[in-house]
Design goal:
Order of helices and strands: EHEHHEHHEEEEEEHEHEHEHEEHHHEHEH
Number of strands: 16
Mean pLDDT: 95
Structural class: alpha/beta
Helix content: 40-55%
Distance between the termini: 16 Å
Bound molecules: NADP nicotinamide-adenine-dinucleotide phosphate, magnesium ion
């Protein structure tokens, strides 16, 4: 008998090679074992075009209503894609649209296997980067200063208050930038991080540059501290977890010397840069999971990589590609496990755990896709499989 579900998952289909993997993963690894219930939204670019991108908004609202979503990688159109897909508009990034509706924080975690070792020798457990995905330099206003003169930072309140500070007196040309963030966005970033630490039973580190930025970064530090004291300290202590704040310089040094196994919360720019560094140091983009956690407890799971366009073009020519489906499988297991926890379905939790473990066992047993066989340092020889061969190898082990 197949494992039953009660509440549907929000299923967001996507584009190119990952769309092919999406179908194969469901057929090979999920539907044979689970009576899968989903509310399906096709976020593939042709259907976004047909619906004038309404489908993305509908999918995000469904995630808000049902609480757990799983998303396939999607194309963010650029000028070349507008031609390729004959689009009426250069539609916005689906992830941007979904994030704007759900709010929250993106958590990225490497999937570790024996035989693929991180560049940093001390890292034994994954390091999760929690990136604030709102404001700062990504929403800044900036321009080149043309000539000598004085720059001011001015605020005009709706109630008539006015604040003005001199920034700098230029003797010649230069550059100028204004950044902002909002207390409510920082609050929800903090809550998402504390909640995720509790959910995953890991310590939380948070770092900024508050010694230099005495108002801006200091506000982040203080809002985190207030929310921790008021809402999370008791729960952390009960679970034996630690929250600590440190300067980003100190955090970087500690991360490199650590064994891993914690969450590192970063401001928007720091998280952008540090997540690329951490994921590269752990080995492969194809072995990195990603989940968006909203402050009111909605979850959207995906792979951290894109639609693997280069492989798709080869697939269209009839070639069997060796594209790694692991991160997309883990998006499914992450979503199924969260759904199962919310609905009290222990069989489904066990299934998600077993599928993840079986993927790792398959790779550790030497059966893997080309991206991993190229990096392999394991004891058994590596066999390079196509995507479908790999899924079938996992399926075989699941059935045993
Ligand atoms: P990408 O799809 O992540 O692929 C970049 C390269 O990384 C691939 O060509 C491949 O290298 C390697 N790679 C990534 N995932 C792999 C996997 N699962 N197995 C094996 N190799 C893998 O990034 P991109 O080429 O920059 O972007 C392609 C499209 O994806 C774009 O249209 C972009 O808008 C979209 N995108 C979507 C998301 C999302 O939906 N979350 C995120 C990023 C990008 P080799 O070719 O050397 O094998
Ligand atoms: Mg980046």
């Amino acid at each position: 008998m197949k494992i039953q579900m009660t509440t549907p998952l929000v299923e967001m289909d996507g584009d190119e090679m990952t769309r092919i993997l999406w179908r194969d993963i469901k057929e090979q690894l999920i539907e044979p074992f689970v009576e899968l219930k989903t509310e399906y939204y096709d976020l593939g670019l042709p259907h976004r075009e047909e619906t004038k991108d309404q489908v993305t908004v509908d999918a995000a609202n469904a995630a808000k209503r049902l609480g757990v979503a799983v998303k396939c990688a999607t194309i963010t159109p650029n000028a070349q894609r507008v031609k390729e897909y004959q689009l009426s508009q250069q539609w916005k990034s689906p992830n941007g649209t979904i994030r704007a509706i759900l709010d929250g924080t993106v958590f990225r975690t490497p999937i570790m296997v024996k035989g693929l070792s991180p560049v940093v020798k001390t890292w034994k457990k994954p390091i999760t980067i929690a990136r604030h995905a709102y404001g700062d330099v990504y929403r800044a206003t900036e321009y080149r200063v043309p000539s000598p003169g004085t720059a001011y930072l001015q605020f005009r309140g709706e109630d008539g208050t006015s604040v003005e500070k001199e920034i700098f007196t230029f003797a010649g040309p230069g550059v100028l930038q204004g950044q902002y963030n909002k207390d409510d966005s920082i609050d929800s970033f903090a809550r998402s991080c504390f909640q995720y630490a509790v959910d995953t039973r890991q310590d939380l580190w948070f770092s900024t540059k508050d010694t230099i930025s005495k108002q801006y970064d200091q506000t982040f530090k203080e809002l985190f501290a207030e929310i921790y004291e008021r809402e999370y300290r008791a729960r952390f202590e009960e679970l034996g977890l630690t929250y600590f704040y440190t300067l980003i310089d100190d955090a970087v040094a500690r991360v490199i010397r650590s064994q891993g196994g914690f969450i590192w919360a970063c401001k928007n720019y720091d998280g952008d840069v540090m997540s690329d560094m951490v994921s590269t140091a752990f080995g492969s983009l194809a072995m990195m999971t990603s989940v968006l956690v909203s402050p009111d407890g909605n979850y959207e799971y995906e792979a951290a990589h894109g639609t693997v366009t280069r492989h798709y073009y080869r697939y269209l020519k009839g070639e069997q590609t060796s594209t790694n489906p692991t991160a997309t499988i883990f998006a499914w297991t992450g979503a199924l496990r969260k759904r199962a926890e919310l609905d009290g379905l222990p069989d489904l939790v066990a299934f998600a755990n077993r599928l993840e473990q079986t993927c790792l066992d398959t790779i550790e047993g030497g059966e893997m896709t080309g991206d991993l066989s190229a990096l392999w340092e394991g004891n058994v020889p590596a066999q390079k499989l196509t995507s479908l061969e790999f899924l079938k190898a996992v399926r075989k082990r699941m059935e045993e």
